[in-house]
Amino acid sequence: xxxxxxxxxxxxxxxxxxxxxxxxAAAVGADSFTALVRALDAGDLDxxxxxxxxxxxxxxxxxxxxxxxxxxxxxxxxxxxxxxxTAAAPARRHDLHKAREDNVLxxxxxxIDDETYEAQLRVHDHNELLVDVQxxxxxxxxxxxxxxxxxxxxxxxxxxxSRWPQQRYYIVLNxxxxxxxNFLFPVAATLRLTVTRADLTEPxxxxxxxxxxxxxxxxxxxxxxxxxxxxxxxxxxxxxxRRAKHAAxxxxxxxxxxx
Length: 259
Fold this sequence. Notes:
The chain is an alpha/beta fold and 259 residues long. 29% of the residues lie in helices and 29% in strands.
């Protein structure tokens, strides 16, 4: 016998986050990924008439969302429990200079106008900044700082240095100033970058000033003001090598004087 479709008025939602954010889940009455999978497998949601919308927070990627859908299907709850997961494409490796997708914090990068760019914050459950410790309800501030850094790298690579595709630029930071005005939590957040200065007159050395805001639930959680330059290959190597040799020699001399 086919069960009648539930009315829209019966709809409800529950939030699920990655296991790394179990403290947040416990504090706000959400589910961690493993806890929800266990609840589904145990039949704890079999009574639901629904629809129940399972909203994916941080730490839930395509892999985890698909696993939740499989668990829902196994219990015959398809249509009664629905996973809501918007999977924006992570920024590319070339844009971020990151070797592991786990560590990519920027997804769905979009150009709004000549000065404004937006993306979604994307925090993988195994991100490098979380694997050592994540034992608070909020997400640690270093995640916001690194997300801002990745945001201006991605914008610079995709929309500026790409004008000279034959060159591979090196990004050098001059200053990075951060202010925090609200806690950041493991749910949806927006990265909004505004270009305040872009000097492209000399293709071998591009200079930028940007502001990146991390926004969540209508509030700014963090603001990062950055000043940096993009150098073409060949401009930095000699200076970098000279200073590297100087630092190595100074370290060796210091060790000898304290021996």
